[in-house]
Amino acid sequence: xxxxxxxxxxxxxxxxxxxxxxxxxxxxxxxxxxxxxxxxxxxxxxxxxxxxxxxxxxxxxxxxxxxxxxxxxxxxxxxxxxxxxxxxxxxxxxxxxxxxxxxxxxxxxxxxxxxxxxxxxxxxxxxxxxxxxxxxxxxxxxxxxxxxxxxxxxxxxxxxxxxxxxxxxxxxxxxxxxxxxxxxxxxxxxxxxxxxxxxxxxxxxxxxxxxxxxxxxxxxxxxxxxxxxxxxxxxxxxxxxxxxxxxxxxxxxxxxxxxxxxxxxxxxxxxxxxxxxxxxxxxxxxxxxxxxxxxxxxxxxxxxxxxxxxxxxxxxxxxxxxxxxxxxxxxxxxxxxxxxxxxxxxxxxxxxxxxxxxxxxxxxxxxxxxxxxxxxxxxxxxxxxxxxxxxxxxxxxxxxxxxxxxxxxxxxxxxxxxxxxxxxxxxxxxxxxx
Length: 434
Fold this sequence. Notes:
By secondary structure, this protein is mainly beta. The chain is built from no helices and 32 strands. The protein has a 16-stranded parallel β-sheet with strand order 1-3-5-7-9-11-13-15-17-19-21-23-25-27-29-31, with no helix packed on it. Strands 2-4-6-8-10-12-14-16-18-20-22-24-26-28-30-32 form a 16-stranded parallel β-sheet, with no helix packed on it.
């Protein structure tokens, strides 16, 4: 347990509940209920509940004012719940739960510059949630295994959720050693940041976090936001969505998904705006990556190492965008679609595949856009056998700024298709070597 949470404070109000039973075999499990309510500024509230023989434990702390501190701690309970409510600015709420099953923890804060921290250790089927309304708030959830040698390093089937509304907020969920064995779903982590700019969201699930899912949503004013998902283990799912109501916004936002293991799935969706970037890195077998942008001046990079991967990249209504897919392994599939309606000029798409039986396709411009989707570049590199490469470009090129399509294949039994429409100024190159 973090030592800084065990420091003795000078408290204006103290609620202390400690339970310990000695030798009462067969007696009913003890129950503990603590409620603290404070109004004003610079108040402290602390609740400690201990119960080594199970039983229900509940804690509620309600503070109204600025600069308040609330700490709730529960140890060794069969079932427990903790809730901290804070209304004001510069408040700090902390919940600590250790060695419990089915525990729930919730911190709700309204105001500016508030901090919420939930730490759940050695738990089964527990849940944690942080809700913050305002700006410059920090929300953190840690669901972690015990650190002592010989203890079962699990926090199985746990879930963490952070919901923030406002600007300049930071949200972090760390789930470590979750669901390393047993049936059912693994850990679930989700972060929603609504109606704000300059927010940052991070989800970490590792190591050996099986059957786990991570979701980040940043919307309705999602400019200059950052989203990061890191997953290690097997059977992960990751989703990142950065969206703006209407056509605009999502400027300067970045999304990054990193997955290591097998049978992973990653989806990133950035809607409207410009200057956005999506990067998905996957290492393992059977991965799937899908990135969609309705943006300007954006870049998508998908990097997959392993076999049986599938990467789908779609950039619509995009100006000067770049999509790059690198796959190493067997039976990979990469699809890049840039520009489907208007102003699809100067797109760049690069696909590199190594292995056997790969399929790569690049489409720039929608059917019927002969006066649009101009001056684009598409490159497909395939090293292996029985590969298929397809490039379709629609639009015009001019002498100094043509549409360019290039396919290079090394190996046997490869097939390349290049189609360019628009009438003039197009360049196509196909190189096939044994």
